[in-house]
Structure formats: structure tokens, C-alpha cells
């Protein structure tokens, strides 16, 4: 990667909150890589601690199927905590291995990323602020829900150790005994001192670490997506005002004025074409980087939703706090999936609107060079830009409905298997 300039606070588009990136060191990771091309200590430390905590836990979870008694209810319960840990690892590793592209993509957060005429900057700033305010609220929701899950899980550790070691079926059938935070099995005497205490501390640290990183990285990736959407909206604003110029060209008093305005519009449309091509190139790179990420988020989101619905409906737990934590977990998965599905749908709409904005103008009344330039932009904007999962599946609002339908179908099938 060729070295890029660091992004300062004054460069960031109006209203975008990057405070959480600074607090957890990610802003420094991005800027250090942009200026030096090297990964700093903070990035290496995050990857090291993540793997140190998550890999042993995931390994023990998978090993447990061969070491303890497991039925379908217990298997879904064991996976309930293993999948978020695996999800955290995937997000961190996507960021680590694609830091080159991610650092370049963060150029999209700059308010001067595309050319905006001076007289339109105030209106562009309003658009940026309106879009980023909604994005900030979604990121805040992800943090609040995720940290609430962490806090309630630590405050009320309701996973029975005896159930994990000896029980099957509903966990409520096992009464008494020690309880732990997460549904993990370990090749240790889990109920004895000091192993129980050591496991409790380990799971507390893992829960806090994953609670922070899951919300941190989903917000980090989401910000780039929403900033690309905002840049397309501002570009559409610029193009929509060109229509007024087109009309003026045809109605002015004499040919000299028409020639002057034609020249000005030609320069503007060439600037629009250049900005549009730049946005498309960044959109292609973003789709390439985010494809495995979105595939993982949607796939694991479906699994967690299925497990959560299954446990909620058929686990027969009477503990209010246990049910409440399930609802929070489902809420977090809903927020995370919605962020990318609705963000991708908005991006698709904004990127395709450019074609209609130009087509609705009087572009066909201009000279042939101008018409060719406009046609190139319209061809490029013919198909909206979206995120994809599994390389080719477009991600949009319909994806949310498809996931909910699939979750319901699988949960119904699993309930029949238990009857």
C-alpha cells in the first residue's frame, strides 16, 4: 500500500462519531497504517489477546461433544456462546488481514472525498450530519445491547455446572450446585476449587473482551459502509442541481451565454464522472473486503437466532433473568444484521438514483461530447451498488425477511424432532 495522509478530526464528515475508535485505539491503528504501512502494537495486542482468550474456549466447546452427554437441547445451548466467540475472532481477523484495504476505505469518512462546489457545501454538511446521526445511534445501540449482555451475564451467572457435566434436556431440571457465566465445558474438574474460580475469572475476562470488540468492530465496518452511502447522496445532490443549469442553457438570451454555461456544465459533469468512478472503485473494494464479513455475520446471525428461538420456546427455563438475556442476545443479532442489510439497501438506492437524476435533466440538448460524458455516467450508475454474501447473494432489506422466515422454519423443524 502506498502511504496516505493521516485523517485528522477536521477531515471527518460532519456529525460522524469516531470517539469510540480513539478510545479503543483503532483510530490510531488506521492512521499509523496509512502513514507507515505497518501494523502498530495496539493492533498486534488486540489480535494476540483475542486469540489467547477465544481459541481455547472454542476448542473446548467443540471437544465437549465427545466428552460429555449431549442431546439436541444441550447441543444448541453449548453453541449459543461458542458462536459469538467465533464471530469475534472472524471480525478481528478480517480487520487484521485486510487492514491495507480497510485503511484506504476509511478515506470515505473525509468530507472532501468528492468534489463539492463551495455554494453547496452547507447543504452537503446537512446531509452528512443527518445520515451520520442515524449511524451513530445504531452504533450506540450495538454497544449498549452488547455491554448489557456482558453486564447481566456476569452479574447473574446462571449456567449450571452440574447440568454441563451430567445433565441433558432442560437445564431447569438440575437444581442447586455452582453456576458459571458461559455454557463452556473444560477438561478440568469444573466444580472444584480452584478450577471453578479460575474458570469464572477466565470467562469474565472473555465476556468483557468479546462484549467490547463485537460492538467495536461491527461499528467500525458499518461506519465505512454508511459513509460510502453518504458520499453517493451528496453526489446526487450535486447532480440534481445541474438540472437547473441545463434548463438555463436552453432559455438564455443569446448563443454566447449558452456557450458559457455549456462550458461550465461540461466541467461539472466531468467532475461528477470522475467522482462517480472513484466511488464505484471504492464500492468494489468494500464489497470484496466485506463479503466474508457479511457472509459470517448473516450465517452466524441465523444460527444464533435459531438457537435463541429454540431455547426460548423449548428450553422451558423459568428464570426471568435467563429469558431476559436471551432476548438481549436476539436483540443484538437483530441490530447487527439490520445495520448491514438496511445500510446496503440504502447504498443501493443512492447509487442507482444518480442515473435517474441525470436522465431527468436536459442532457440530450447539449453537444455530442457532453452527451457522451453524461451517458458514461448513466451507464456506470445503471446498477445499484450493494454488499454481497457468498460472493453473489445481494444483501438488502429482503435479506432480513428471508432470515426471519428461515429461522422460523428451522426452529419449527427442530421442535418437531424433539417431540
Q: What does it look like?
A:
This protein has 419 residues and is mainly α. It has helices at residues 19-23, 26-36, 41-67, 72-97, 99-105, 121-155, 161-166, 195-251, 255-314, 320-359, 368-380, 397-418; strands spanning 159-160, 179-180, 387-389, 393-395. Helix 6 packs antiparallel against helix 8, helix 8 packs parallel to helix 10 and helix 9 (255-314) packs antiparallel against helix 10. It starts with 18 loop residues before the first helix and ends with a helix.
Brief write-up:
With about 425 residues, the protein is an all-alpha fold.
Q: What descriptors fit this protein?
A:
419 residues, mainly alpha, two-stranded antiparallel ribbon, 12 helices, 4 strands, 2% strand, elongated
Number of strands: 4
Strand-pairing-aware structural class: mainly alpha
Strand content: under 5%
Number of helices: 12
Instruction: Give the termini separation.
Output: 57 Å
Amino acid at each position: 500500500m502506498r502511504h496516505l495522509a493521516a485523517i485528522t478530526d477536521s477531515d471527518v464528515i460532519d456529525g460522524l462519531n469516531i470517539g469510540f475508535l480513539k478510545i479503543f485505539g483503532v483510530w490510531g491503528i488506521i492512521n499509523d497504517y496509512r502513514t507507515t504501512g505497518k501494523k502498530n502494537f495496539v493492533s498486534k495486542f488486540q489480535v494476540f489477546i483475542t486469540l489467547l482468550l477465544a481459541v481455547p474456549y472454542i476448542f473446548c466447546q467443540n471437544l465437549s461433544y465427545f466428552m460429555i452427554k449431549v442431546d439436541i437441547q444441550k447441543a444448541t445451548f453449548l453453541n449459543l456462546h461458542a458462536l459469538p466467540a467465533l464471530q469475534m475472532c472472524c471480525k478481528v481477523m478480517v480487520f487484521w488481514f485486510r487492514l491495507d484495504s480497510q485503511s484506504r476505505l476509511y478515506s470515505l469518512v473525509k468530507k472532501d472525498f468528492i468534489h463539492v462546489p463551495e455554494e453547496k457545501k452547507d447543504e452537503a454538511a446537512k446531509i452528512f450530519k443527518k445520515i451520520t446521526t442515524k449511524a451513530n445511534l445504531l452504533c450506540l445501540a450495538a454497544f449498549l445491547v452488547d455491554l448489557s449482555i456482558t453486564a447481566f451475564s456476569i452479574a447473574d451467572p446462571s449456567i449450571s455446572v452440574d447440568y454441563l457435566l451430567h445433565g441433558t434436556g432442560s437445564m431447569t431440571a438440575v437444581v442447586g450446585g455452582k453456576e458459571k457465566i458461559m455454557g463452556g465445558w473444560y477438561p478440568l474438574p469444573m466444580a472444584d476449587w480452584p478450577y471453578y474460580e479460575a474458570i469464572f475469572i477466565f470467562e469474565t475476562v472473555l465476556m468483557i473482551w468479546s462484549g467490547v470488540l463485537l460492538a467495536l468492530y461491527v461499528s467500525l465496518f458499518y461506519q465505512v459502509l454508511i459513509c460510502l452511502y453518504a458520499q453517493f447522496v451528496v453526489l446526487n445532490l450535486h447532480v440534481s442541481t445541474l438540472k437547473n443549469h441545463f434548463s438555463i442553457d436552453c432559455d438564455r438570451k443569446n448563443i454566447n451565454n449558452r456557450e458559457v454555461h455549456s462550458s461550465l456544465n461540461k466541467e461539472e459533469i466531468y467532475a461528477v464522472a470522475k467522482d462517480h468512478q472513484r466511488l464505484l472503485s471504492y464500492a468494489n473494494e468494500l464489497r470484496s473486503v466485506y463479503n466474508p464479513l457479511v457472509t459470517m455475520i448473516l450465517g452466524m446471525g441465523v444460527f444464533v437466532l435459531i438457537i435463541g428461538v429454540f431455547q426460548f420456546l423449548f428450553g422451558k427455563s423459568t428464570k426471568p433473568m435467563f429469558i431476559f438475556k436471551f432476548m438481549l442476545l436476539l436483540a443484538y443479532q437483530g441490530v447487527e444484521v439490520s445495520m448491514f442489510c438496511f445500510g446496503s439497501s440504502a447504498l443501493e438506492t443512492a447509487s442507482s438514483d444518480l442515473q435517474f437524476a441525470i436522465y431527468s435533466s436536459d442532457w440530450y440538448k447539449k453537444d455530442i461530447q457532453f452527451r457522451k460524458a453524461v451517458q458514461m455516467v448513466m451507464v456506470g450508475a445503471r446498477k445499484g451498488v450493494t454488499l454481497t454474501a457468498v460472493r453473489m447473494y445481494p444483501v438488502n432489506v429482503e435479506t432480513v425477511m428471508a432470515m426471519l422466515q428461515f429461522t422460523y422454519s428451522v426452529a419449527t423443524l427442530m421442535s418437531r424432532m424433539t417431540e
